[in-house]
Design goal:
mainly alpha; Tetracycline Repressor, domain 2
């Protein structure tokens, strides 16, 4: 049998993962068996086992790719010139969610939900997700730094705090989509504005020095 090229091997590995994502999107990690994945690939069991020794390995690989794709969203934002504004970024995040959930074959946001639960059970996956998410937070902080430099955020802004807030919003959008209802980008923007004003409280102008009486 001729030896497979690296490109062909990668294509077959990706085909197995894509087939698994269809199963995971429909039935979840634990209701999906390795036999289900093999059947979805249309490959022989021995061919699948050349790439993944167990369903656990497929789950970990799927989770790693899903987590990495979150970081890719912000890498692409950082590569844009000019840098997207905070409002534009919110709209782009909502559009990205729709792009993932509208995929007719599989929904990576459903895989993401399952990955979070799986990370609580699997220490290896937990550490990998933690490291990847920390890298993503660093990327968002760089984006927030550009907003600060462009005047969208105050000069003394805590970019790490802004990054943590945006990161939390992004994952909250996934939960809202699957368990409650979609949040439009304009509603998200308005809600953030209202909450920001409520948390900070009314802005008080600094006291003006008393003016000297005119003669």
């Amino acid at each position: 049998m001729p030896r497979l090229s690296e490109k062909t091997r990668e294509q077959r590995r990706q085909h197995i993962l894509t087939s698994a994502w269809r199963c995971f999107s429909r039935d979840g990690f634990h209701a999906t068996s390795i036999e289900d994945v093999i059947a979805a690939t249309g490959m022989s069991s021995s061919a699948v086992y050349r790439y993944f020794r167990s369903k656990e390995e497929i789950i970990r690989a799927s989770a790693e790719i899903g987590v990495a794709r979150v970081g890719d969203i912000f890498v692409s934002l950082l590569e844009r010139d000019p840098c997207p504004t905070p409002a534009e970024t919110l709209a782009l995040l909502v559009a990205e969610l729709h792009a993932r959930t509208d995929n007719p074959e599989y929904d990576m946001s459903r895989v993401a939900l399952q990955t979070w639960a799986e990370a609580l059970r699997d220490p290896v996956l937990h550490e990998h997700a933690r490291a990847s998410y920390r890298d993503t937070l660093d990327q968002i902080a760089v984006l927030a730094g550009r907003w600060r430099d462009a005047g969208y955020l105050p000069p003394n802004s805590d970019t790490n705090a802004a990054a943590a807030t945006l990161f939390s919003l992004m994952h909250g959008l996934i939960v809202m989509h699957h368990l409650v209802d979609d949040v439009p980008s304009d509603a998200l923007r308005n809600g953030l504005s209202l909450l920001g004003a409520a948390v900070v409280g009314p802005y008080t102008l600094p006291a003006r020095p008393p003016q000297e009486a005119k003669p």
